[in-house]
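ugh ok fine here u go
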Amino acid sequence: MTTPLFEFPEDDWTRALAIVAHPDDLEYGAAGAIARWTAQGKDITYYLASKGEAGMDDTPPAEAGPIRVAEQIASARIVGVDVVEFGDHPDGLIEHSVALRRDLAAAIRRHQPELVITINHHPTWGPGALNMADHRNVGNATFDAVRDAANRWLFSDLRLEPWSGVRRVAVAGSPEATHAVDITDTLDKSIASLNAHEAYLEALGAHPMAEPSEFLRALALQTAQRFSGRHATSFEVLSM
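structure:
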């Protein structure tokens, strides 16, 4: 796709909540934008539906979960994020369920974001690259949860005030990207944040996604072709 990407709106929000399925989901691109935004003084929080416990083939889930949680917390700090929350949905088997929507709506009500960031909810990442169920289910449930959080009659037992202040949802890694964020000054932090997932990357072995610098620089250059030649990361942006 060669359609130019619009500048991501940055002037009408100060708080964001990033909702994804696993540790490392945000580090494959979105973290560069998050580093830019926290440097601007914006308040960004992470909510991960799982602990990524099934993501390391050489490590049993009971051991992998705590490793991946610790790596995600360290990774988030590199890009200026201090609050990282984890759900208990099973890595690899996350369902688009009322239980998931409830947890996400609770996070939205607690943190009251104006922007919600999530992961690609489409069937593919692009031609010939299938997406996985956890990403699809968390992404789609996030859209539902934004509406659920605004409805005081849903999940009222949470004893949290409804929140209807979400202006838009930004989908990272979407094959239908509409906007981009210039990460020229934060690409190195983006790479460092992915490198913080040291044990996970080692478990990937000889895989292109296990080489953070090469992978993220190539991705930023690819996006630059649609964004006036600037290193960038892209999002599909939907108004709520």
